[in-house]
Design brief:
Number of domains: 2
Largest sheet: 5 strands, mixed
Number of helices: 8
Mean pLDDT: 90
Number of strands: 5
Shape: elongated
Radius of gyration: 24 Å
Distance between the termini: 60 Å
Oligomer: single chain
Helix content: 40-55%
Length: 178
Amino acid sequence: MIDLLSMTQVLLKEAGFDARLVSLNKAPLLCFEDSALLGFCYTFESADQLLREWQKVETDVLIRFAPNFRAAGDKAWNVYCAFLSEDAPTDEQAREIGWIEEDLQRTRKIAACGIADRRALIASLLPLLPVQYQPILPDSDVTERLKRRVADISPNVVQTALDESVSVAEVVRRMGER
């Protein structure tokens, strides 16, 4: 069992958002914003509860924060509501949850269930997060990989480039000799 709202807050802060917890109808709500958008994240106990209550939560958020939207300028055109749950959905619920994101009325929506860990949370919040690329490197000797890369650039300096007694300036000079 994870604390989904706290993990979301940490993840969004790491991505550069201002994020703070407030209360909405006696339940925790995460508010977040950056220079381009405003957003809210609400967690549900189950996929079924998410499907039953997301529209009411969205309405309550819009009513409560209406004055903030007027003051937000252009950001008010870029408001997100994220509806999340750790509970794994049935196949039918998963389809219905996908349809929530297609509803472009009032706010942009992110809806996801079955979030069991940080990786799943990141996957569900990708529309909000900066572009991420994590290369997968094969298991190999780093020194050998470096030698191959240097050999592709300048074969005559492979040994020199890895010799700590040779200055960087000397390696660059030898690379120019080709």
